[in-house]
Design brief:
Elements: H1 10-14, E1 22-23, E2 37-38, H2 56-83, H3 89-118, H4 120-133
Antiparallel strand pairs: 1-2
InterPro entries: MFS_trans_sf (IPR036259)
Biased composition (Basic and acidic residues): 10-31
Region (Disordered): 1-50
Length: 136
Amino acid sequence: MDANKPQRPQQEEDQKPMSEDKTTTKSRDGGGEAEPSSESGEGDAADHNHRGWKAMPYVIGNETFEKLGTIGTLSNLLVYLTTVYHMPSVKAATLLNVFSGTSNLATVFGAYISDTYLGRYTTITLIQRETMSRPN
């Protein structure tokens, strides 16, 4: 031990002083620490964190209803193609499989373009303008 330093109890050595401008808080989901937040009243990162397991029921519910809608539309489209257009069942099923595969791969391609080049908000703005510009 250093003779110039007074001895402190073990508890004081374990406690580290926090800086006055930033503190770290435990995240509510129990995993590690959240981002540092300032004490000046700008808001806590843990209070406004809308990611993680709290948002998962909404994501899973959205995907479930999307798949139900897609499957229902594809089965109705199969009936429509075979009765109204008198298309053979094999050709109608092949056409619907190509349509379904193209739709699923288009989302992966679009996500790649969005994440790599455009960004989230630019992509949403472009898609909304495209959708709104179409005539009814």
